[in-house]
Each structure stands twice: as C-alpha cells, then as structure tokens.
Amino acid sequence: MIKLEGGFVQNLGRVYGLYTLGFLGFVILMAILEAAGVSNTVIGWLFVAFTVAIYALIGVLSRTMDSNQYYVAGREVPAVYNGMATAADWMSGASFIAMAGGIYMKGYPYMAFLVGWTGGYVLVASLIAPYLRKFGCYTVPDFIGTRYGGNVARFCAVVILVVASFTYVTAQINGTGTVAARALNIPFEVGVWVGLAGILFCSMLGGMRAVTWTQVAQYIVLIIAYVVPVVWMSNKLGYGLIPHFAQFGAIERVQELEGLLGVKELMPTAEAQAAAGKLAALKVGINDASDSLMAKWKFLTLVICMMAGTASLPHVLMRYFTTSSVKAARQSVGYSLLFICMLYLTAPALATFTKLSLLDPTVATSIIGKSIADVQNLEWIQQWSSVNFLKIVDGNGDGILQINEFFMRGDIVVLATPEMAGLPYVISGLVAAGGLAAAMSTADGLLLAIANALSHDLYYKIIDPKADTKTRLIVARVLLVLIGGAGAFVASMKLTSILGAVAWAFCFANSGLFFPLVLGVWWKRANRAGAIAGMVGGFGVGFWYLYMVQFGGMAPWAGIDGLRFGMIGMPVSLILMIVVSLATEAPDAETQKMVDEIRIPSGKVVHDQ
User: In the chain, what are the domain boundaries?
Assistant: First the structure.
C-alpha cells in the first residue's frame, strides 16, 4: 500500500521520473510494433489498456480506510505535485479534446474559454483557495455549512454541487467514450461504459489519496500526448520546432486559404446539413473576430462566466484541501497555473496546424478540392465515419469535396489530428491515451466531489451524525458507482457537446456558489439567511433561464445564451445575499471572529475535522 509518510514523499521525483521514462519506453515499443506491421487496432487497444492498467494499479495501491486520507489525502501532498494533480483534474476532456476543436470550428470567439479558464485561477488564488485551506474543511458544502451554520445552507450547497458536478462529469465520460470508440473501434455508447470502468478503478478504493497520485501520472501522459503532435506537425510543415511562435505564420496561410476556399460564403445546403445531422461543416475563419459591440460583449460575458465558474467548482477547490499549509495551498495554485498554461498555450497552435493540414493543397494530407471517392478511401476518414463522428455529403453532385461538404464533430479534432496530418499511427495512440487521461482525471475528481459531499455532508452531517468511518466510506464508494453509472447513461444520449456541457456546469456552479463562497471569506456580515437566499435564488433563476433559452423557445436577453446563463444567476445571487443579510440578524461574534482568522495566513487551522 502506498504511504505518504517518509520515503515515498521524499522519493516522489524518482518515482514519477521512472514512470515517465517507462511511459516513453512504451511509446517507443509501440512505434517498433507499428513498423513491424502490427495493426492500428491492436496498437490502440494496447495504449488504452496499458495506461488504464497503470492508473488502476495506483488506485488499488492507494486504497485506504482512513477518513482523513480518503477525503483529503492526509493533507500532506507537496505543492508541486498537488499543482500537477490539479492541472490534470482541471484539464478535462473539454480542455484536451474539445477546446482546440472549438477554436478550429468557431474561430477566435472560442478563445474566451481559454482566457476564462486561465484567469479563473487568479480568482482561486486571491479570493478563495488559501482561506478554505485555513478553514480546514473536507468539502465545499462543509465550509458553507460551518461558516453560515445549519443544515439548510449545507443542503443547498450539496444540491448545487451535485447538479454542477454531474453535468460536468457527463462531459468527461462523453470524452472517454469518444476516445474509446476510436481507439478500440467500438460504438460510442459502449465506449462510455469502458471509460467509466477505468474511472471507478482509479477512485473507488483510495478516494482523494488514490485520485491525487493517479492524476499526477495522468498529467504526465496528457501533456506529452498534447505537445508532441503539435511540435511534429509544426516541423513537418516547415514552421520550426516551437509551434507557439511558429503558428503566427501558419495563421496567415490559413486565412489566405479560407478566402480562396470560400469558408464564409460557401455554406452547406439544407439537404446536406440534414444528411449530416448534428455534425458541423466549417463556416467561420480561424481568426474571425467581429468588431461589433455585441461580439465583444459575448466574448467578455463568456470569459466572466468561465472565470467565476472556475472559482466555484468544488472539485477544483477541494484539491487545495490536500496541502500541508495555507502557504502550500498558495504555491499549489501557482504550480497549477504553470502546468495548465503548458497545454493552453499549445491549443491554438494545434487548431491552426490541423486546419492547415486539411486545407493547404501543397500539403499531401489536404482533402478539400480532391475527389470525394479518393477522400472516402482514406483510412482515417473511414474509421471516424464508422463511429458516426464524421460524414462527407456531395451536396452539388460534382464528385469534388468542397469546404461545405465535409462535416464532423468538433470534439474529434485533437484525437484525429495525427491521422489528418499523416503522422505515424503511434502518435494517434499517444493522443488517445492523453485524451483518456484528461477525461478520466477530471471525472475522478468530479465523482469524488459528488460522492464525498453526499456521504460526508448529507449522510454523515445531516442524516446519521453517529455513523462510523467504515460506514461513511462504504456509502461514499457505493455512491461513486451509482453516480458514475448515471453519468455514463446520460453521456450516451449525446444531449450536448463536451464544451456545451462544461459551460453549463460552470454556470450552475457560479450562479449558486460563487458569492456565498467569496462573501463567506471576505464579508463578516454575510449570514445564514443571506447565503441560503443567494444560493437558492441565483441557482434557481439561472436554471430557469437556461431551460427557457435552451428548451422553452425564449429569445436570449442581450445575447446571453445557454453558455452564459451565469450572467443572469450571479447578479441575482449577489443582490439577494446582500439584501437578505442586511435585513436579518448579523452572525454571532464567534462566527465573525472565525472569518477574521481565516484571512490570517499563519496560525492553526480554524475548523479541523
């Protein structure tokens, strides 16, 4: 069994160094097998099986029946490794699989996700994380319940956490299904259950301790898998070995090609779009950015929602409960941002070089303007078409592929990039392993956040305060399985894209939790009645607005669509919290003193378990 004490912590560098070398050795072995004629299907299976087996092994070795270890990994995780685990927890299927795809399909406006998600960590570091660590809680509802007092406030926080995290976890299981469908050549509906099995192995036995050390391993895999193909493409296309700088020349070439191919003018016919179903054709340029006031407003509001959502998501905040001190929590946020930026700064380059590989007629991998029969004979086209993620529709019947006749699901851009760019299949296997690591790492954290909140805050704190540790942990593990199964079922229904589901989750969280968390730390006058009003009102109005815009036929107010409904919920939450708090009795002196102590960096933990 893995122990955090003594030698293991001291040897973390050596352990993960050997792990990294071992993983690179495995990639080299797969390259040798590919050269020897082993089929792509076998290589895909080996990549998925090897990485999932390693994560599961870490999960099994980290099993524990100690509540402190299960909920917060003993609060002894070094800052740099907690930063890596947080980065893996954060860089979900949305970051790894869907973000570059969103930039590819929608252009500049989708950079708002990147700006918002990164900027959100400034809020986490400055407003919330260190103070929640000083408080000494196990979960976000634990802070809400103790800071404001009473089971009603705690219960409201649990409900918001479950809704936001469950919405988010369906997107991650969607990501694992997407990877598994292609890598294992199985239907997407089966792939989500394969991904769920790996997720549960990683988190069920060891809780936060298992998830922490698994996520460090997953970060190493996902960052290697994301950066290597982009560097390879940049060099192969003649732009040099540093794609982050080389992409600017590539963007100019892509813009030139978009004009020649009529990206903005040549829209899909109604018949072709109907035949393609939910799949999308390229309709905007990679650097499209309207100067209109509405376009700027929509960019800004999406950034605000993603920033506030980042600072409200319980699975992100609970990672900082695992550090040894308030200082370590602050350092951990800095490391998190560093490790996250390594991927986020690469995503635009990946979208650019992928688009260039498909559009540039001087590149061997280009497909636009080629014979549709020849394009349909390409192996990667056949494979992605077979799992219904890609479709070619000859809208004008001329047998030549136009830009408006190539439809695909944006979520596959990163996963299909190595094949689109003509790279060896071993790179496709590497990217699949990285995408799986990204989706699994976040799903681990989300499922754990939900299960811990229900077992600790609902079952133990409200239903059965006398429950012993063994019973509480059994409840948590049963809930992990049940919630994971429900998430896989919802993901298999494909209700929305990965990015869409993630945006909803962020807005659910910020509508109900952002101001109760921030004011709980920074405003002593905030009280129980105000917090409950803020949570119920903000979350309720936000939920209503999303339903009306998305399903009720209501026109968005001032351009605030379903991706941005936090802009409706957050102001309601803030106003209600301030008005109701001022209209009711102030918190007692002990609570106000506790709030003051939370903001002092040194000293003992305010509320230890």
Answer: 7-598
Q: Pick the more confident residue, 382 or 284.
A: 382
Distance of CA 134 to the CA centre of its chain: 26
Separation of first and last alpha carbons in the chain: 24
Q: Reduce the DSSP state of residue 400 to 3 states and report it.
A: strand
Cβ neighbours of residue 171 under 8 Å, at least 6 residues apart? 92, 93, 94, 491, 498, 499, 501, 502, 505
The number of residues in the chain equals 609
Each residue of 259-271: pLDDT tens digit?
A: 888 887 888 888 8
Fold of the 7-598 domain:
Sodium/glucose cotransporter (1.20.1730)
Report in angstroms the alpha-carbon separations of 279 from 275, 300, 366, 419, 464.
9, 27, 20, 19, 49
What is the pLDDT at residue 2? Answer: 41
Tell me, what's the pLDDT at 206?
60
- Sheet arrangement for strand 280-281: 280-281, 406-408, 390-392
Burial class (CB in 10 A: 0-12, 13-18, 19+), 345: middle
Listing DSSP states for 63-130 in one string gives ----HHHHHHGGG---HHHHHHHHHHHHS-HIIIIIHHHHHHHH-GGGHHHHHHHHHHHHHIIIIIHH
Taking CA atoms, 188 is separated from 23, 197, 424, 592, in Å, by: 27, 14, 24, 52
Confidence label for 574 from pLDDT (cuts 50, 70 and 90): very high
Contact criterion met (CB below 8 Å) for 304 and 507 = no
**pLDDT score at 518:** 95
Average pLDDT of the chain to the nearest whole number: 84
Cα 354 from Cα 183, distance rounded (Å): 19
